[in-house]
Write a structure and sequence with these properties.
Length: 175
Amino acid sequence: MATTKTETEATQNEVQSSEAAAKSGLAQNVESFLKAQISQAQKRIEELEGEAGKVVKTLESRGQEAAKEAQALWAKFQAGELLTDPRVQELSKRANEASTELSRRVDAAGTELRKRFDGIQTRVVEAVGVASQAQLKDLNKELAKLSRKVDSLLKPVRRVNGAKPASSPASSPRA
């Protein structure tokens, strides 16, 4: 009977040690998973930054080319050559349409990029478990409210006609 009891205790000890090992392994798996997710998010952010840089460079070069063309056309316009040419009138119409379309595309790309960054930032914050600004504001409001309540409770009792308030044994300090 004594051997059965020690065998049972030995089995329980083995089960407890294997459970502890499984829990620590799980914690390490979660930690490595979170690190991998954050690493992937950082890589994706870097890729998006690279793509955004390429788009900006392309737009800058197009803008410089358009500025050169506009300057050349302005010189001709000042000379009075362009206003009567039907090709110029057609080009003017096309340029206005292209400019409007390009502006729309740039605005859409900027909006999409902001949405992606916000989404990635939100996922990273959620994965890391950091409180959002809204949550911090709520906590600060609650803390201020509690602080005011504590302050109101700690204010001394008003004395009526200069008399000291009666001290009860429950409120007197103990040595």
